[in-house]
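go over this record:
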Amino acid sequence: MIERGYEMMSLMEMHKQTFGNVSKPIIGCLHMSALPGTPYYDAGLSMKDHIQRLKNDAKILMSLGYDAVVFANEGDRPYQPHVSPEIIATYVRIACEVIPELHTPYGCGVLIDPIATLAVANAIAASFVRTYVSNSYEGTFGHQQFIPADIFRYQKQIGAERVKVYTYFEAHAGVCLDTRSTEDQIASGFATMPISGMLVGGPRAGLAPDQAKFMAIRKAFPDKPLILGSGANIDNISALLPNCDGVIVGTTIKRDAYLYNEIDPKRAEAFIRAAKNT
């Protein structure tokens, strides 16, 4: 339970409130092109170009009835656990230009930096974040260590407690150094950290989780918000959505289903139709 004044609000109630009283929000990704200083940055793109591309994506999602959106610097691969100031500055500039196009709740994630994520969320008045807050991992992006005591103290220090934190408990493109089961890690996380929900996805962007494992987590934590963090598509959404409390979708709604492309209106429409008919 989360204390709010004299009221006690369950995590599920808070989840629904965060997403405008939608219990299973369909959350579309607003992926930025590679930002300055990163390996795939295109110096030929002006700031106006960056902003216009994301505005176009936002308009598509809004017109199709997506319940929420989440900003991400997806183009900045390979990702860093601590991003530089120019990333934060450019990210905030782009997001603030796009936000007036939105009429839904919105969140953010600065891959894979939880401190920057919270700082940006506070600056742009995001309702929620998608991030990592605990554990250690080894993988494609090197060693990653997330210290929840530092992260949540920082959230408190900057006055960002209203930002709802949704976190992963499994590695992205890597392995977790904690040998406990995912269920044990989740139970420990909810017992010791002020998180609002969990994200479960596939081994990397665009890949779905193992359905049996996904459903086992749902069964183990029926009263904890569970968002499908990656891998949703029109073929699996009918099986996965009934077993979670929302879905973040990116790859499958892009042109040619390629993660780093712009949103394809037809693919985005096909997905939201499949999800809403589930």
Q: What stands out?
A: The CA atoms of residues 115 and 154 lie 7 Å apart.
